[in-house]
Amino acid sequence: MGGALDTKDWLVTAIDARLADHDPVAIRGRMPRELRDADPEGPDVEARARMLVARSLRHRLLDRQAQDDESAVGTMDGHVGMILDLAALLETPYGPALRRAELAAILAAGAGDLALALKAAPREGAVPSPAVVRRALVKAGERLLRIHFPPGDPAHGLPLYAGTVTIQRRLLARMALHYYQGGQLDPDTAMDNLEQARDEELLLVEALAGLTAADLLASHPDRRVVSRQVERVGLDRERVQAARAAASSPRDPEEIVAETPPRLRNFLVEQLLLASLGMPAGSTPRAEYLARFAQAAEIPPERLAAMQVEAAAFHADHQEWFRAFGLPAEAEWGELADEWNEFGERMVDKVAAVVTENLDAIALELRETGELGTLLAKAAAGQALDAPERRKVKEQLIDLAKAVPALAIFAAPGGLVLLPLLAKLLPFDVLPSAFDPRKREAAKKERDAESRKRRHGRGRD
């Protein structure tokens, strides 16, 4: 997807280029079988659509530092590609002019301009005039630029960008699914979808503000910067005021979760995990905030650990890790990203399973080896390791794999590329205290002491 972002027709040009060689049959054929097959025993179309959206977001590397046109265009191209994939999945009738009008209607609806979206939407196969379609795409392009350019989050702001991209893509997916299933754009359904997305953005602001405010000794976002971020998202006036108030004085995590629909709770925890990975390590209050949020959302510890692995897999600070180990950052990361595009779900799931199933053993071995945990934490913080330190890491990983065989995935050739996922888990400071053996032992002693007190009390009676 190309086109200069400083022209009002950038989205028109980009979509025309995308449709020039578009082949929905080929696209559907390349989808995983579990996505394209309408198996009565398998997931329904809504579930497969959600899988498609998750897949499109998984393939997007989250780079908070990028501030260039290409990064923004890539994000917006992901929106368009997801809609085209969804149309291919549902095997809707295809023609370049027809699909162009459908994209214009869906994107304009996602931008909040329902009147223009209804004008651009094809009716019973009849395509509106090119001028109407172009006007809808121009309007949608302006809205997308306001949300996604420049990419990333400003200094002294909230880590909102990754979450707003996800909310926007899910909104467009709902718009597209309802359009293709119903054969027309329903204004009431579209408005409901918009309201849902705006409520999600408001909750995202408050949850992230709560995380950043939890540590009174850490630096906090600038209110003026956050205010501009909220305006950029495109909330209505009432929600803008509510978001500013929430960012200024966020509620306790339990209160936020209580007002969060169950379908959104996992998403908010994912965003908190991503945000925590981008913050300086060692903040116990922020770790406790995240743990309380996850507990209120009824996310079990083993699932939270897997979510943390997934977040680490897509966090954009791996280059620092590679530099710490003297590895060729760009080549290794690019190669791994290509693999994840094809096998990402399997690889991340495997690492998540290894870590979550062996957390106690890993913690015990790391305590006994001592130096390994320190070195990996040092590398995770972006501090360069010298040659002897790198050798120690490799040797101790091999020893660790002897005690915990599943960890051979990290000690194997090329395993260093996967180590950032493990390193992100080492401090255990974003996990519930149940995962920290020292805290678990302390809690056990406390329970035993309490039990002895009760027994003695009964004996005196």
Question: How would you characterize this protein structure?
Answer:
The protein has helices at residues 10-20, 24-30, 33-36, 45-58, 69-89, 96-110, 114-120, 130-148, 161-182, 187-214, 223-233, 237-248, 253-258, 262-277, 284-296, 301-313, 318-324, 329-357, 359-369, 371-380, 387-403, 408-411, 419-423, 437-460. With 461 residues, it is mainly alpha-helical. It folds into two domains: 10-309, no CATH class; 320-430, no CATH class.
Radius of gyration: 24 Å
Cα end-to-end separation:
80 Å
Q: How many beta-strand segments?
A: 0
Spans of at least 5 consecutive residues with low confidence: 61-67, 329-334, 336-344, 427-440
The total number of structural domains is: 2
**What global shape is seen?**
globular
Number of helices: 24
Quaternary organisation of the protein chains: single chain
State the helicity in percent bands: over 70%
Average of per-residue pLDDT values: 79
Q: What structural class do you assign from the helix and strand content?
A: mainly alpha
Strand content range? under 5%
N-to-C SSE string, H for helix and E for strand: HHHHHHHHHHHHHHHHHHHHHHHH
Characterize the largest beta sheet: strand count, sense, and whether it forms a barrel. Answer: none
Please specify the SSE layout and strand pairing:
Elements: H1 10-20, H2 24-30, H3 33-36, H4 45-58, H5 69-89, H6 96-110, H7 114-120, H8 130-148, H9 161-182, H10 187-214, H11 223-233, H12 237-248, H13 253-258, H14 262-277, H15 284-296, H16 301-313, H17 318-324, H18 329-357, H19 359-369, H20 371-380, H21 387-403, H22 408-411, H23 419-423, H24 437-460
Helix pairs in contact: 2-5, 4-5, 4-9, 5-9, 6-7, 6-8, 6-9, 7-8, 9-10, 10-12, 10-14, 10-15, 11-12, 14-15, 14-16, 16-18, 17-18
